[in-house]
């Protein structure tokens, strides 16, 4: 059963890591998309919206890669729990439906799971088990 748990954690890490990177790659390669994200954050009165947008985007990319390869998964997951906790709050403040919040909720709870379990056997960082 131990192998099944590690395989399950690997599959969860693959999904979360790839989704995190996929979700921000457009902001990384297009300054116009980053400026759109800045405008979105500004309408919710985030402090320093351009800085906040950059921090969120690059943190998601870095943590996504870390989760994907199994490096410092607990730290990366906790940072993403904070990031997506804020995202869920913003969705709630916007009056979004549960269906609209589901992508952020899936990442929030997936990262919570990885925070508590660690990366599993199939990871670069063996201390994250």
Largest sheet: none
Order of helices and strands: HHHHH
Structural class based on helices, strands and sheet pairing = mainly alpha
Number of helices: 5
Helical coverage, percent range: over 70%
β content, as a range? under 5%
Q: What is the C-alpha radius of gyration, as a whole number of Å?
A: 15 Å
Overall pLDDT: 93
Segments where pLDDT lies below 50 for 5+ residues?
none
Number of strands: 0
Shape: globular
* N/C terminus separation: 15 Å
Give the topology.
Elements: H1 2-29, H2 31-43, H3 49-69, H4 73-93, H5 98-117
Helix pairs in contact: 1-2, 1-3, 1-5, 2-3, 3-4, 4-5
Describe this structure as you would to a colleague:
Helix content is about 80%, strand content about 0%. The mean pLDDT is about 95. The chain is globular. It has about 130 residues and is mainly α. Helix 1 crosses helix 2, helix 2 packs across helix 3 and helix 4 packs antiparallel against helix 5 (about 100-115). The two termini are about 15 Å apart. The protein contains five helices and no strands.
Features:
129 residues; mainly alpha; 5 helices; globular
Concise summary:
With 129 residues, the chain is mostly helical. The chain is built from 5 helices and no strands. It is globular.
